[in-house]
Amino acid sequence: MKKILAVFCALFLSGVSHSEILGPRISLFSTTVDWAAITGLSLHQYTGSFVGKNSDLVKKGIVLYYLDAFPCYGEADSVRVWISPKGEVVGNLRLVCIHEPTEVKFAWNNEKQDAIQSVTTGLLTCPVRVNGGDFSVDLSKCTRGTDWQEYK
């Protein structure tokens, strides 16, 4: 133990950096933390609902995970929803935005409601209709994007 401590002390005193010893540190942080401050614009909250049916997309049920993108970011406790083949929605979608969203993007997967979270299939882009502080997503107008394994 004393030898290990002595080696680290010697490296520290010699000016060897953390990245040279253990590899580079990666720091991830959200760019959405202070959009109001960096844009000078006010933030507004929008609550989403889902309408329409897209049986080819929904199948046995679909789980949607909102993907943060300017001008909006999702509130942490309300970015996952499950939609049944009958159109029943479990979960909430609440966004904080600099201006009205025109579309939203989701990572998605076909799952039953009680399924444990698993890897998503790919990207789904949906236009939205805004009415005051509410917006609606028409599932029949969503466009299925590239599946994750197709990204290069």
Describe, in plain words, how this protein is organized in 3D.
With 152 residues, this protein is of the alpha+beta class. 18% of the residues lie in helices and 37% in strands. It has helices spanning 2-14, 18-22, 35-39, 55-58, and strands at residues 44-51, 62-66, 72-74, 80-83, 89-91, 93-97, 103-110, 122-131, 134-138, 143-147. Strands 1, 2, 3, 4, 5, 6, 7, 8, 9 and 10 form a ten-stranded mixed beta sheet that branches. Strand 8 and strand 9 (134-138) form a beta hairpin. The N and C termini lie far apart (45 Å).
Proportion of strand residues: 35-45%
Number of helical segments?
Answer: 4
- Please mark out the parts with pLDDT under 50 across 5 or more consecutive residues, or reply none: none
| Distance between the first and last residues' Cα | 45 Å
Structural class by helix and strand composition: alpha+beta
Number of strands: 10
Helix content: 10-25%
Major beta-sheet overview: 10 strands, mixed
Global Rg: 22 Å
Q: What value does the average pLDDT take?
A: 81
What is the chain-wise order of helices and strands? HHHEHEEEEEEEEE
Please tell me what the overall shape is.
globular
